[in-house]
Amino acid sequence: MKFIPVKGTRDFYPEAMRMRNWIADAWRAASLRNGFEEYDSPIFEYLDLFTAKSGDEIASQLFNFTDRGGRNLAIRPEITPSLARMVNAKINALPRPIKWFSIPRLCRAENPQKGRLREFFQWNVDIIGPQDELADAECVLTAVDAMRQLGLTSSDVQVHYSSRELLSEVLESLGITDQGAGEVMAVLDKRNKLPADKFDAMLSDAVGGSDAIAGILRFLDAGSIDASASPEEIAADAGINAGEKALGAIAKLQAFGGYLDAFGIADWCRYDTGIVRGLAYYTGIVYEIMDAGESLRAIAGGGRYDNLLEVLGGPGVAASGFGMGDVVLGILLEEKQLVGDLADRVDLFVVDDSPELFSEVINLVGRLRSIGLAAEFSYKRQNVGKQLKQADRRGARKAIILRNDGAFIKDMASGEQTACVLDELLSDPASVLGR
Amino acid sequence: MKFIPVKGTRDFYPEAMRMRNWIADAWRAASLRNGFEEYDSPIFEYLDLFTAKSGDEIASQLFNFTDRGGRNLAIRPEITPSLARMVNAKINALPRPIKWFSIPRLCRAENPQKGRLREFFQWNVDIIGPQDELADAECVLTAVDAMRQLGLTSSDVQVHYSSRELLSEVLESLGITDQGAGEVMAVLDKRNKLPADKFDAMLSDAVGGSDAIAGILRFLDAGSIDASASPEEIAADAGINAGEKALGAIAKLQAFGGYLDAFGIADWCRYDTGIVRGLAYYTGIVYEIMDAGESLRAIAGGGRYDNLLEVLGGPGVAASGFGMGDVVLGILLEEKQLVGDLADRVDLFVVDDSPELFSEVINLVGRLRSIGLAAEFSYKRQNVGKQLKQADRRGARKAIILRNDGAFIKDMASGEQTACVLDELLSDPASVLGR
Description:
Rossmann fold, about 40% helix, BirA Bifunctional Protein, domain 2, alpha+beta, five-stranded mixed beta sheet
């Protein structure tokens, strides 16, 4: 009998687990520093919850099953529907803004590829309540703050943002609405992933009119949203028919840019009309975080989704947030050689000089651990040299050597060895260990 | 449309999440202090892996499903089979002893009851390699260490241990072997959960001979394993037919007791012949951790399982470990009122005296977060008093008030307010915040 893990899932051996924890710890620390509280949902939910949000086509990406009670259930492929369900259930009891984060394990029945697995972890950061670009900007700040903690800089990654609302307005002014708009957006979303000729052909198919194509391309090529220009000037520059909603969307982009600036992260961010986001429920600012070379999949994606709580049976409450997966981020951190030495280190490794002292070894280990120190020992009764070698492999900072003539403490880095009074070590470890 | 979570699963709103994290943090800290490394496995595996270990009857407790590739998969109901699979796959590359822990999310298709849910978290601690009761004792020490960190004492909980090997020998000496032994053990495992008359009737059914019943009851009533007595004396006292394997099992219980003593946790532990453990794969020392009142389900259970790696296609390598769930432990910690104030606190809450200073507020917040401080602000432009009230609700330690005549820092506990030089705060926060 030979057992293997399922394709697209990962075994986290200790080294891989330390890497996963290192990333998750940075996500959690950035979340708390930015004023978010952690939540979590069950790993499986009623299937309906996921199809209500994203339509039946999401069902093909789900691991779904029927339990003994005949319930149609699914492993969560994303946490946003569960977030909306939880918020809706307590909407009147929760003080706003609701600033929540989570680091769920998610599963999708996809074909495993580079950067895309069937099981992964995704940091989710959401602000529910304010219909204000400040919330979009604060989510982006939180993402940048975590990436900064992991050692990435604005030369390594960029937040590409645009306005889904403005794009809708532009398409509408060109006579492209409803389902047609959805199809065109799906093509635009692939612009960075397709060869130019293929993109042109698909866009032409979806649009079906050369005037409209010219208008779309002119909008896509408009490169920036000037903070000091008026919305009317910006619209004119980009060839946008300046209706009230389009001007409003431009003003929101300007406000968003102003907040990024005030938060001190303008150099991490750039306006990019190519950002569309596949999912239908975004309603305003949208963004993706890309590596500078744009050779990897998006590291994160998010935006404003003001209708989702209502779609899932709640009141009309504004919301904005993003998801950042661990897989692409992990690839980037390794490419940039930002993963340092993550090995767990023990404070003390207790060694005996002869086997009859072994019960004293484990007695001391038990006492050291009971006062909060990480202490380790060898299961094999072997000579001091071999035990010290094991201490070294475990990354021990110091070794305690028990001998018939007393106890000694050895600094593993310097090799320096001195006599050690065990009662002192146990009553005031900092004075002996120098911390 | 109204969506609800599936029966037996939990929504972790921030308060519940903090409690879950508090427990998991104690588990993780105790694991690292005791020299264990963290690992994790996928949330789903091939169904075969779980049925190979525990038989087809486990399948009724599984959430299983077939994916689009026709694979028979299941959400993990326990992590030990995955642990054995992972260790087997790298058995020659892993230095021994393999001391690993994990805090997996597990799912079982059970009827939800007090202390038993369909989705829960379980701390798993295992030592693979040493065929030595020292490993059993070190796992117990690690469990005790975590419970100690959570505020429990030996008056609150006790580790009840016995020897599955000794029980097998006793049954065999009474002529009860193989399947009969399995049936009798299943009855004995229920002794603490059944009324006495019902237990007697079931035992009588399973054994079918009054001599054997008397022998079993005499063994069950033997209360202690004296460290200074010989195995032969102990066997005679308990009416055990002193074959070589029975004497060996008694000697192992004595060794185990000696290690508990050397580790300084003898007062947390007691010999209890009533401990059997339901699962078939235990081979030596077994234990359960119970609340002192024994009014709850077991907090943890474990023991030695020397055959499992081999059953799952690997070499014959000894192993020992336990699982501790979050549900019963959580109930006990709440009953004992050991759950303190777990609220996330922010270091600084930045307030403005008038709306035109707001962009300075968010600029300062961005800079404070970038140097690692937890800083928060109000989304609503409202007067200083209301903003300070919000700061208080968020547990802020200090507030920074930006006014047209300068910045001020207010200690939220004492109410004391002084002028604040922002450049000093940003360049040397410890000097200003007094930490």
